[in-house]
Amino acid sequence: MPTTQVAHPKDLMTMTGTALGPTESLQITQERIDQFAEATGDHQWIHVDPERAAQGPFGKTIAHGYLTLSLANCFLPELIQVENVSMGVNYGTEKIRFPAPVPVDSHITATGEIIAVEENKGGYKATIRVTITAKDADRPACIVDTISIFYP
After folding, report:
1. CB 3.0–4.6 Å: which of 43, 71, 145, 147 could bond 94 by disulfide?
2. Main-chain phi, psi angles of 53, to 5 degrees
3. What's the pLDDT score for residue 14?
4. Residue 108, exposed/middle/buried by CB under 10 A (0-12, 13-18, 19+)?
5. What is the value of pTM for the model shown?
């Protein structure tokens, strides 16, 4: 499905309930996991020790939940492009859940849904639910309600 194009931020006001995506897939490599561990200081063995993780509950290393969450920001521009903005601001998130792990070498994709839109101090605040899923998984890896403000 192609990226949803929005001509102007005010057009978001009529888009609640709109489905977005899916995105292209992204492979979660051990290198990416290790880089995230370095950046955050989270070196737990289930993420960075393939030998020990092979004997653990997942049979291999898994991505950090927060690594998977951080990729919502990577996927958002693939899900929706809002034109005629002077700037877009990441305002934060609401609910975040990690229903399933992301094993190393998984290919993940995202889908989205526009949950709510409201005017906000000269801009338009959009809550977009991003669901990240690993290929062939029976449950999503991450569900997050992202909040962005788009200023004309």
Report:
1. 145
2. -65, -30
3. 97
4. buried
5. 0.94
